[in-house]
Design goal:
mainly beta; 97 residues; six-stranded antiparallel sheet; globular
């Protein structure tokens, strides 16, 4: 397992569905555009500020989050691919545990 530091998180990207439960078909050309979804697997403790306080982390392990394709960097660790994302680059929480 990988451990996040500061105000960073690690997610495992979720597979995109080509057909939504509502019946909407998502074309292959839309795969590269827009937000991606991932499950949070590690949350840092928050960045320490100049006054000694820590940033408040809004996410927790198990949350499903949306983030832009530009927002993260892929990291491979023990045959698993994670996406490292600063908390500020998360667009929103799709589902929380």
């Amino acid at each position: 397992m990988i451990r996040a530091l500061g105000s960073n998180i690690f997610v495992i990207e979720k597979e995109r569905e080509s057909v939504l439960s509502s019946g909407i078909i998502i074309p292959d050309t839309a795969e590269d555009a827009g937000a991606r979804l991932g499950e949070v697997v590690s949350v840092g403790p928050g960045q320490i500020q100049d006054d000694g306080t820590r940033d408040h982390m809004l996410l927790k392990v198990g949350d499903i989050v949306a983030y832009g394709s530009w927002a993260g960097k892929e990291v491979k660790h023990q045959e698993q691919t994670y996406v490292h994302i600063p908390q500020d680059n998360i667009i929103g929480v799709v589902r929380t545990v």
